[in-house]
């Protein structure tokens, strides 16, 4: 996966995140739809964290003279435990 494809995935996920946040307000009277949006939003946030982590790994490897293709997507439990 190239930096460009990861960045494109990030852009798509950010767009979906914005859409879900807007839809959340419209779905507020419908508990089932609202919960579905919240569940998907959480999954999008985790995937975004994974994509950003992978992109940072690739850049760090490249900067250190390594092969960026050696970067691997980390488990959601790992990236979600990072401190911001």
Textual characterization of the structure:
- The chain is mainly α.
- It has one domain (3-79).
- It has 3 helices and no strands.
- The chain has helices at 3-26, 31-63, 76-79.
- Helix 1 packs antiparallel against helix 2.
- It starts with a helix and ends in a 5-residue tail after the last helix.
- The mean pLDDT is 91.
Can I get a quick summary?
With 84 residues, this protein is mainly alpha-helical. The protein contains three helices and no strands.
Name the helix and strand elements from N-terminus to C-terminus, one letter apiece: HHH
**What about the largest sheet?**
none
By DSSP (H or I, 4+ residues per run), the number of helices equals 3
Per the principal axes of the C-alpha atoms, what is the gross shape? elongated
| Uncertain runs | none
Q: Radius of gyration in whole Å, from Cα?
A: 16 Å
Strand content: under 5%
Distance between the termini: 25 Å
Helical percent range? over 70%
Count of discrete structural domains: 1
Question: What's the structural blueprint in terms of helices and strands?
Answer:
Blueprint: H1 3-26, H2 31-63, H3 76-79
Helix pairs in contact: 1-2
